[in-house]
Amino acid sequence: MRGCSARGSRRLRSLGLLGAAGLVLTGCGDQHEPWSGGYVNTTSYPYFDFGTEAAGQPRTVLGFVVADPEDPCTPSWGGYYGLDEAEGTLRMEEQIAALREAGGDVVVSFGGAAGDELATACTDPDRLLAAYRTVLERYDVRTADFDIELDDLEDPAANQRRAEVLVRLQEERDEPLEIWATLPVAPRGLDQDSVDVVARMLAAEVDLAGVNVMTMNYSESKPAEQSMAAASEEAARSVHGQLTALWGAAGQDLSAEEAWHRIGLTPMIGVNDVPGEVLDLDAAAELAAFAREQGVGRLSYWSLNRDRPCTAEDGDPAEANDFCSGLEEETGEFTRVLVEDVEE
User: Fold this and answer.
1) Residue 1 lies in a domain
2) What is the CATH number for 16?
3) pLDDT digits (tens, 9 = 90+) for 208-233
4) 170-191, pLDDT tens digit by residue?
5) Nearest alpha-carbon partner for 51 in 38, 41, 64, 60
6) What is the set of active-site residues?
7) How many structural domains does the chain have?
8) Quick check: is 320 in a domain?
9) Which residues span the domain enclosing 279?
10) What is the pTM of this model?
11) Beta bridge partners of 263
């Protein structure tokens, strides 16, 4: 089952079942099934064969769709490939079909750390709506991830524009669209910019499945003696309180269980970008057990491309790169711990 569509919220409001922000008071908005699945960096070269490597996992998160540098209202993969180019060069449709044939599905992630998320670059709401629609319809996407960070996160006009367009996108569809906001986090929780992104979406009446926090790259926000697993668990608990307050302010009181279901966790496997921060297999297993115990709505990781040991050609394993974890592991071990074991 997937969350209630915004289209249905108009009828529910007339029946007195919605709060001030159009959020369902009967639990209707909390119907999506918990899921797990790793991200794929689709444009890293050499290209990753996700159609084969991700076969068997429930969902695969494909990143990242951003604005075309030469046409801000046109979607592209990574700023490098238009959708037609991606069909040929990245074999995008072919690989998505392979995943679905194997029983999985795909999530498209908009934004990321590089390039401009479409709402940042495209200031025309109608063209922005058309850009999102084009991607979702082309790949028959039912779950969309919006990875908002760095400059995109600090642009309130873009965040408001995105929220208003996502409502329109949900309303026009014949079936529900599950939407996740992916945001940076510290052990103390979301910062004010991230809180504002969520608040704007809820105020605009986006049917928001949840907030996926990037439990990685803590830098000075994490005490040096604190483990990555402990920092991530502290971050999740902090976000639990923040989401309870945000949904409450928008007119929907969440139970503790419902608030956990609105949370997603996404660690960076192996060596992180911040020196000294490493999520090893034991820490990944601890975080997965925590997620399972709390009943989080989503568990992802960055990235499938990196779920293998480094070779001499990959460079210094002590430094994060796009192609390996930096740890001595069997290929696919993080996937087993974070996806396969969670699904059992």
Assistant:
1) no
2) 3.20.20.80
3) 999 999 999 999 999 999 999 999 99
4) 999 999 999 999 999 999 999 9
5) 60
6) 149
7) 1
8) yes
9) 6-343
10) 0.91
11) 211
